[in-house]
């Protein structure tokens, strides 16, 4: 009984503004039909990839998003079969979809049905749905929209403000104006890539020092922790107290897509379990690293990810200094630091 009581299954609410249907064309394996192909259907979009990884890590996950049209009906059924709870808001225009051809080895987009902007009433319904669900969850996860015009940036800032008013943890994985608006209201964790920071005009460089400086500016605005992914380089964790790099074993990727979403899921699940920021970042880094070794986005095995997290070291970053050219520079210590 004591062991069962110690294990907490966190409940996550994931805002999924643009659930998508992914149609994947893979090479066929019938020699009699050289032009044949295998077709696979998957639910996709940032929010759903985050949700799938969170399920793999043992969380109870509710996704809140707009579902409508033929594609929306298919998506809702597929998600129900993946043990996700769906809080669907009617979407008169219908969901978007991709058709990808992978017979040549790479992923080639053959068609993209773009979801339109939500109407005023659909936005109101979605906001109320997410807010009520978030207040009954351990962690709220905010995923961005594709394209961004589906949701106005103020939608995210309002949600962060209202949910943080009752001290609920919020993990936001956003870019562009949505990230800026959310940052101003103080989410627990804001995850952005170094490319997203540059595209948003929050930094002009990609060095550790320049990214550290950008992260600190956002922390000064109210973000509790900035998690800055750097493609194949160690992720940077910036808080008011410290800046640290998450350093782990090098892995050979099969598909680099989905690493950031898996990282977000790992962080959210760990926070929902009651972990500190450093421990949460470690689990996120492990989930992201192992996901790129697989062909399925937002997939992984909990036991492997949690063991791999033990291989993630944390290195302290020395305070930002200006070099002779006036650019930000930073150094790291010689070895892994300790979790704080």
Structure commentary:
The chain contains eleven helices and 16 strands. It is of the alpha/beta class and 340 residues long. The protein has a domain at 10-17 and 55-69 and 116-329: Ribokinase (UDP-N-acetylmuramoyl-L-alanine:D-glutamate ligase). It is globular and about 60 Å long. Mean pLDDT is 87; it is low at 1-5, 322-329 and 332-340.
Helix/strand-derived category reads alpha/beta
Fold-level CATH name of the domain at 10-17 and 55-69 and 116-329 = UDP-N-acetylmuramoyl-L-alanine:D-glutamate ligase
Specify the helix fraction band: 25-40%
Radius of gyration: 20 Å
Concise synopsis of the structure shown:
This protein is α/β, with parallel strands linked by helices.
Layout of strands and helices, then pairs:
Layout: H1 2-6, E1 11-15, E2 20-27, E3 37-44, H2 46-56, E4 60-67, H3 69-80, E5 85-90, E6 96-101, E7 108-113, H4 120-135, E8 139-143, H5 153-164, E9 170-173, H6 176-183, E10 189-193, H7 194-199, H8 208-221, E11 225-230, E12 233-239, E13 243-247, H9 259-272, H10 277-291, H11 302-309, E14 313-316, E15 321-322, E16 328-329
Parallel strand pairs: 1-4, 1-8, 2-6, 4-5, 8-9, 9-10, 10-11
Antiparallel strand pairs: 2-3, 6-7, 11-12, 12-13, 13-14, 15-16
Helix pairs in contact: 2-9, 4-5, 5-6, 9-10, 10-11
Any key phrases for this structure?
disordered N terminus, 340 residues, four-stranded mixed sheet, alpha/beta, UDP-N-acetylmuramoyl-L-alanine:D-glutamate ligase, 11 helices, single chain
């Amino acid at each position: 009984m004591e062991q069962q009581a110690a294990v907490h299954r966190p409940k996550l609410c994931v805002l999924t503004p643009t659930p998508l249907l992914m149609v994947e064309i893979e090479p066929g394996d019938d020699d009699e039909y050289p032009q044949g192909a295998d077709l696979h259907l998957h639910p996709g979009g940032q929010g759903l990839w985050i949700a799938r990884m969170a399920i793999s890590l043992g969380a109870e996950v509710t996704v809140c998003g707009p579902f409508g049209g033929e594609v929306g009906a298919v998506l809702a059924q597929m998600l129900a079969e993946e043990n996700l709870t769906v809080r669907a808001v009617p979407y008169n225009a219908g969901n978007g979809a991709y058709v990808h051809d992978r017979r040549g080895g790479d992923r080639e987009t053959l068609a993209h049905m773009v979801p339109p902007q939500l109407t005023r009433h659909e936005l109101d319904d979605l906001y109320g749905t997410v807010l009520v669900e978030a207040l009954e969850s351990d962690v709220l996860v905010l995923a961005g929209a594709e394209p961004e015009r589906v949701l106005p940036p103020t939608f995210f800032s309002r949600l962060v403000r209202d949910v943080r008013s009752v001290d609920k943890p919020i993990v936001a994985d956003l870019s562009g104006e949505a990230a800026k608006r959310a940052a101003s209201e103080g989410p627990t964790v804001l995850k952005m890539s170094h490319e997203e920071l540059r595209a948003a005009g929050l930094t002009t460089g990609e060095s550790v020092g320049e990214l550290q400086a950008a992260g600190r500016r956002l922390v000064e605005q109210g973000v509790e922790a900035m998690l800055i992914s750097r493609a194949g380089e160690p992720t940077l964790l910036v808080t008011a107290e410290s800046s640290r790099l998450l350093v782990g074993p090098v892995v050979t990727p099969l598909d680099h897509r989905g690493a950031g979403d898996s990282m977000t899921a790992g962080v959210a699940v760990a926070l929902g379990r009651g972990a500190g920021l450093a421990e949460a970042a470690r689990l996120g880094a492990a989930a992201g690293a192992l996901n790129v070794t697989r062909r399925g986005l937002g997939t992984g095995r909990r036991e492997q990810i949690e063991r791999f997290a033990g291989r993630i070291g944390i290195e302290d970053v020395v305070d930002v200094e200006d070099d002779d050219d006036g650019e930000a520079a930073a150094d790291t210590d010689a070895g892994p630091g300790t979790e704080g």
